[in-house]
Amino acid sequence: MDLEDLPGELIMWILIGSEILVFAAGITAMSAMRLTDPTGFADAQAMLDGRMAALNTVVLVTSGLFAARAERAAAGGDRRGARRGLMLAALGGAVFLAVKGVEYAHDLSAGIGIDAHPFFTFYFLLTGFHAAHVAAGVVLLAMVAIRARPDAVQAGAMFWHMVDLVWVLILPPIYLLG
């Protein structure tokens, strides 16, 4: 497969690859630290509300579906359908951020802060950095929806799918692996 055969622009693939590597480095560092204190990490992880993570997973995956539908609509010349899909994807991102805000507020009110345990340092850094990407994606999707050109819709959808993928990558070590 030649680079010319990749959908979208090469620079977008470079951005996506570099972002995934940054998150992978954080996950790797967290996994290494977990080996030094498996009980402490498991106890800290048990303090999180997995229901919030499950809800946010459904929200992000669903918003990814809307982004994919927007891309398909734009490719078919349906700007209205592309705008609708992009705005629904952006709305999913906004819901994700609201749920994450509620989760953080609950954590902080329970005395869970970034310095409570090394697990929580990674938890807040990885999920916070991801939330920043979600916020950027919401803005990007809204901006792309204004004109809904097929190439821009494709780039926005690619970024959004990267945001989905990163969530799927950080979900197990943060919420599931104990």
Run of helices and strands: HHHHHH
Q: Mind telling me the C-alpha Rg?
A: 18 Å
Q: Largest beta sheet, briefly?
A: none
Which assembly state applies to the chains in this document?
Answer: single chain
The number of helical elements comes to 6
Strand content: under 5%
* Strand elements, count: 0
Structural class: mainly alpha
Give the overall pLDDT as a whole number: 94
Summarize the structure.
84% of the residues lie in helices and 0% in strands. With 178 residues, the chain is mostly helical.
What does this structure look like?
There is one protein chain. The protein starts with 9 loop residues before the first helix and ends with a helix. It is elongated and about 55 Å long. The chain has 178 residues and is mainly alpha-helical. The protein has helices at residues 10-36, 38-45, 50-75, 79-109, 118-147, 150-176. The mean pLDDT is 94. Keywords: Membrane, Transmembrane, Transmembrane helix. Pfam families: COX3. It is a multi-pass membrane protein.
